[in-house]
Amino acid sequence: MAILSTSKLYLHYGDIPILSNINLDINPRSRIGLVGENGTGKTSLVKILVGETDFQQGEILLQKNLSVGYVPQTAENVKSSSVKAHIMDVFKSILELENKIEESSKTLENSNNTTNQNTHLNLLHKYEMIGGYRYLIEFNKTVTGLNLTTEVLNNSFNSASGGEKTKANLAKALLQKPDLLILDEPTNYLDFESLRWLEDFINHYEGAVLVVSHDRHFLDQVSTSIWELENQSITTYTGNYTKYKKLKSEHILRQQKEYESQKAFIEKEQAFIEKYRAGQKARQAHGRETRLNRIQLLKAPNKTQTINLPDLQVKRTGRVILSTHQANIGFIEKNKETILLNVSDIELLRGTKTAFVGKNGIGKTTFLKTIIGEIPPLNGIIDFGHQISYGYVDQNLSYIPENVDVLTAFLEAKNIPINEARSYLARFLFTGEQVFQNVNSLSGGQLTRLQIARTMIQNPNFLILDEPTTHLDIQSREALETILQNYEGAVLFVSHDRLFINNIAEQLLIVENNQINLFKGTFNQWEEFFNNSTIKKENATKQNNKSKSKKINKYKFEQQENLIKDLEKKLKILEIKLNNATKTQNISELSEFGKQYTIIEKQLSDELEKWVNF
What we know:
Blueprint: E1 4-13, E2 16-26, E3 31-35, H1 42-49, E4 57-62, E5 68-71, H2 83-88, H3 92-110, H4 114-129, H5 135-145, H6 150-154, H7 162-176, E6 180-184, H8 192-203, E7 208-212, H9 216-222, E8 225-230, E9 233-238, H10 241-276, H11 282-294, E10 320-333, E11 336-343, E12 347-349, E13 353-357, H12 364-371, E14 379-384, E15 390-393, H13 406-413, H14 418-426, H15 444-456, E16 462-466, H16 474-486, E17 490-494, H17 498-504, E18 507-512, E19 515-519, H18 523-531, H19 533-539, H20 548-584, H21 587-612
Parallel strand pairs: 3-7, 3-8, 5-6, 6-7, 11-19, 13-17, 13-18, 15-16, 16-17
Antiparallel strand pairs: 1-2, 1-4, 8-9, 10-11, 10-12, 10-14, 18-19
Helix pairs in contact: 3-4, 5-7, 5-21, 10-11, 13-15, 18-19, 20-21
């Protein structure tokens, strides 16, 4: 039985229809991926389901007492003092109960009568039932999985970055454990480790999950059905994203054949009608015309508009397009140098496609800005090769002039005749009056398309792209992939879209222990390499892995993991003891085991934090 259903749902903004006749069911343990082009109404549908947006027609039926957790794309400011306090608010009932237990313990010390004992016993039992002995462990595992560091957790929530706020909201929703978890673009600010952790969490989650995402690999890992929102309606496909693509292609092919077959039939009938309308077969022609008028006309399958470019003829460069020598990357603040990254001596060659991958916050953007000369290296040399003309797309899209129309912003990059400019912009889906739209009103996806257009019109032979896919829908990502695959110049890009990386990059710049090294292979090959010590020894960029300090670090890391496992075992034993003491109503044992549990739980929390920072 469905936990949430919609029936004949309609939504429009003024005269513009957004959703028409939406009939959906979400069942227990559903794993649904909601996909569609930007602007089709995915977020509007999600907001209707969680009660944040009204609709004009239809109804939504919810299972009684259904709990729903929702993480929107953008996070708003809250009253919580810190990021940690904001997340911990989900445990409000546990924290309040802890205070009651503490007060009850003091009461027992002063008056150990049967009434007070029973009150204390009931409080301890309730504490166990609502997860009081486990919540800190769950908290630490979740914030660790999402890479929310101690520094971030202690920061004011309202002064945190957009990505940090979104991850905090995600952590809070996951810890809430609702019957239905709805996530709108949850992967935007997650690095690879956090993405894998979230995929594993969703796959083991006991409730239902609806996720809006443009990350195809993520959808493949977590979805068992796909809802596609197109032309104001939802089409449901069984399977993950890859299966959906196959089924949709087959569906479009069938549609096209049916449309062409009907079109050919109609043309044949019309020819007969016209030929015999006034002749001996006029009666037969009239009958055919009557039948023809009753036919329900089929529509041709929609042709999705995507970014497209002709093959670019780029200026030939020297063999080496970028080289580094003993370089340190970082910044200077108050006359103090902070080194973020050490760069091995690297050469990127003509025509190569290179992805730069690593955890969030390690300095990837700083490295790209050092390459283009916005930030000087702290030490060493970073040089372009001969005849290099680079094009740079930054993740904040800050190079686009403000408060001008699209056409003016484009012409600022290269002054060409207006008709040529409009024709070029049309390739990036800016058509008709859209070229006169103010850039300040553009969405993130539109701004990204505009900046890519501004970059490509300059015909660079070396593209440097910082998170170019963040605001792009799936169709635009796939179109950009095609452009980059056919591009004859070199490409260096940062992205967290694993499929995008794997489809483009033939080699990777990898950050490990604040060191940038070159890995010659695809993303999939690197993942195998990363998880297989034998392959790692054979293929890794030469490093002094046998140094004494690294052996000590590895030994300490293993010690730390063993300590955590030992503490987790102790907690499980104490859980059994607490459960038995609850059944026998042995207050002294409950009190003693409860104290031991609290001490070990705190110790485990501290050790987990150390483990994260290794």
